[in-house]
Amino acid sequence: MQYVKHLVPLQQFDKFVDRLRQEGYKGVNVTVPFKTQAQAYATHSTNRVLEAGAANTLKFESHEVWADNTDGWGLCRDIVNNAQVAIQGKSILLVGAGGAARGVLVPLLEHQPKHLVLANRTHSKAMDMVQQMGLSNQVEVVDFEHWPNSRFDLIINATSAGLEGQLLNPPRQLFDQAELAYDMVYGATDTPFMAWAKQCGCLQTRDGLGMLVEQAAKAFEWWRGVMPQTTPVLHALRAQMATKETR
Ligand code: ATR
Questions:
Q1: Strand 64-68's sheet: what is its strand order?
Q2: Cα 68 to chain center, whole Å?
Q3: Is the CB of residue 116 below 6 angstroms from any atom belonging to ligand 1?
Q4: CA-to-CA distance for 3 and 95, rounded, in angstroms?
Q5: How far apart, in whole angstroms, are the C-alpha atoms of residue 208 and residue 206?
Q6: Ligand 1 pocket, 125 CB below 6 A?
Q7: Is the CB of 120 under 6 A from ligand 1?
Q8: Edge-to-edge strands of the sheet including 140-143?
Q9: pLDDT by residue (tens digit) across 54-88?
Q10: Ligand 1 mean position to 124 CA, how many Å?
């Protein structure tokens, strides 16, 4: 069994996946910028893909291609099982309204938080997303000029600000005694968002490595019918990243 990574030329997603199918691959995980194309490539999509408008997993079965999206499942699993923070009954602030936020919105709501606020730099983009998804009555939308005055239990960064080397520093009061600040990106050390959350009094911070592992485990289960144990994988990856950092 092999699980390897391929860098796919921008214009060649379909051709590339055609080739993998011919070579006998059972499926693929897909990441940015191909998640929308992955959905379009598939002949069938799960509800999770239809809700998110993007796929991160494809499964090949003779002439059929199934698409799933395990990102939201991975995030919730990492928060609830690995960070041991319940989502149910909590107040949640999700920052960002791009593909990453879109993929996790419904899975987060399925855990029945008390309140979910979506904050985005561009208000109209967040409004459009929430309306398109039919979630206007479950999600409150704000922009960065109008942050809520209250604190939150769980604050999730789903923006690409950090990837672009820009800081995202929401107001201090939001983090006061927050149970968890979660950054969907990951690295060998704390991301700037995690460092800011700690400075502001957040009790626990976490990067997206666990989400990466959990979404992959869910995909593996779909392909192979076996759910792998994720804790040893997460520890091994973390150790590997720390070693690279100190070299
Ligand atoms: P992806 O699909 O990877 O999520 P995207 O669709 O480009 O990427 O969305 C990026 C998200 O990060 C958006 O919510 C974007 O905010 P805007 O909708 O206002 O563009 C957010 N983002 C990117 N850079 C940011 C920054 N410097 N500060 C705050 N938000 C930022």
A1: 27-29, 57-61, 64-68, 44-45
A2: 14
A3: no
A4: 32
A5: 7
A6: yes
A7: yes
A8: 140-143, 115-120, 91-95, 154-157, 180-183, 205-206
A9: 999 999 998 999 999 999 999 999 999 999 999 99
A10: 13
Residues 120-178 have pLDDT tens digits of: 999 999 999 999 999 999 999 999 999 999 999 999 999 999 888 888 999 999 999 99
Report which ligand 1 atom has the smallest distance to the Cα of 126. 18
pLDDT per position as a tens digit, 177-213 = 999 999 999 999 999 999 999 999 999 999 999 999 9
* Residue appearing with tokens 């990856």: 237
Q: Tell whether pTM > 0.70.
A: yes
